[in-house]
Amino acid sequence: MFKIRCLFIHLPAALLVILVGPLAHAETLTGIPYTIDGDTIRIDNTRIRPHGIVAPAPKQTCKRADGKPWRCGWEATMALANIVGEHWVTCEPRHIDRYQHVVAVCRAGVLDINDWMVRNGWASAQRRLSRDYVDAEREAKAAKRGIWQVRGRAR
């Protein structure tokens, strides 16, 4: 009876180590990134998605105030590429998504890249996963930056 009780007591802890262990001990990812799109970079062979934000897809269009479409997805990709440039980026992993990409908060020096993308209107806060960038999105909307040039968002 004692052995069975010990097994059940330690089983949840063992599962926690298996499920959380690799990420809890994940090392910070550092390097000069390759920009794939507005919300994906690659450092070495690791694809990294930004925690708490989502950018328009590369081929996605938005409407300007005059009603004309513009390539907001491409512009979001270029904004990310320009902000990381040839800089070293450090990413702190939060979790692994369903596509096996690392989801992280990334910085170029002291600049929080995730926050910068949202604050400048090139991405929106991903509220169902995080509230970290909601204020930055409100600021971008109020200033009508990037994808928020008109009321609403990308089409």
Description:
The chain is an alpha+beta fold. It is 34% helix and 26% strand. The chain has helices at 2-24, 72-84, 113-119, 134-143, and strands at residues 29-31, 34-37, 40-43, 46-50, 53-54, 62-63, 69-70, 89-96, 102-108, 111-112, 124-125. The strands form three sheets. Strands 1, 2, 3, 4, 8, 9 and 10 form a seven-stranded mixed beta sheet that branches. Helix 3 packs parallel to helix 4 (134-143). The longest helix is centred in the first third of the chain and has 23 residues, at 2-24. The N and C termini lie far apart (62 Å). Mean pLDDT is 84; it is low at 1-25.
Mind sketching the topology for me?
Layout: H1 2-24, E1 29-31, E2 34-37, E3 40-43, E4 46-50, E5 53-54, E6 62-63, E7 69-70, H2 72-84, E8 89-96, E9 102-108, E10 111-112, H3 113-119, E11 124-125, H4 134-143
Parallel strand pairs: 4-9
Antiparallel strand pairs: 1-8, 2-3, 3-4, 5-11, 6-7, 8-9, 9-10
Shape: globular
| Total beta strands | 11
Element-level helix/strand string: HEEEEEEEHEEEHEH
- Mean pLDDT across residues: 84
Binned, the helix content reads 25-40%
**Rg, nearest Å:** 19 Å
Please work out how many helical segments DSSP would assign: 4
Low-confidence stretches: 1-25
Termini separation: 62 Å
The biggest beta sheet is recorded as: 7 strands, mixed
Describe the structure concisely for a colleague.
The protein is of the alpha+beta class and 155 residues long. It contains 4 helices and 11 strands; from the N terminus they run αβββββββαβββαβα. α3 packs parallel to α4 (134-143).
